[in-house]
Write a structure and sequence with these properties.
The chain is mainly beta and 176 residues long. The protein is 9% helix and 29% strand. It is globular.
Length: 176
């Protein structure tokens, strides 16, 4: 009983395990990979370049995101499609745009060095230029041609951005 209580507390406040179900993060993550996420309050805030699991209800899918310690846990009762794994590209207050004269995504006018993109894949086929609102994030998949990410939801609530509190956690371990 004590072990079960410990596991529940661990999932509520420290880590959670998710299964990748789409190919939007290839080559970094593949379908069927299991990822261990560390809650953002455990060691540090979310940073650009982090691969995160986000509850996208109310932005990318209908419904209301569950935030706080129960986000991502069985207590939140979220359907599987309510969570996505994406890379943080833009932080609050930053201007994220695509593309510069060399075809790169820029943040506040400086090009990103996106070494994680698959060889030969353009950073974006659609141009965009957004300023990330306060307490929100701009996220993109690594496999840009198939990723349904912030670019795909410019007309959705939040203008394609996701609320910082909707981040369930940062991927810290991958189990293929």
């Amino acid at each position: 009983m004590l072990a079960l209580a410990g596991w529940v507390l661990l999932q509520l406040f420290v880590v959670e395990l998710f299964t990748v179900t789409a190919m939007s993060m290839r080559p970094t993550l593949h379908e069927g990979d299991r990822v261990l996420v560390l809650r953002p309050t455990v060691d540090r805030a979310v940073a650009r370049g982090d691969v995160v699991v986000v509850d996208v209800r109310g932005t990318f899918v209908p419904g209301r995101a569950v935030t706080g310690p129960v986000a991502g846990t069985p207590l939140a009762r979220a359907p599987g499609d309510a969570f996505v794994v994406k890379r943080v590209v833009g932080l609050p207050g930053e201007r994220v745009a695509c593309c510069d004269s060399r075809g790169r995504v820029t943040v506040d006018g400086s090009p990103l060095e996106e070494t994680y993109l698959p060889a030969g894949v353009a950073p974006s086929l659609e141009p965009f230029d957004v300023v990330v609102p306060d307490r929100r994030l701009w996220v993109m998949g690594d496999n840009r041609p198939v990723s349904e990410d912030s670019r795909s939801h410019l007309g959705s609530p939040g203008g394609g951005t996701l609320a910082v509190p909707a981040v369930v956690g940062r991927v810290v371990q991958v189990f293929p």
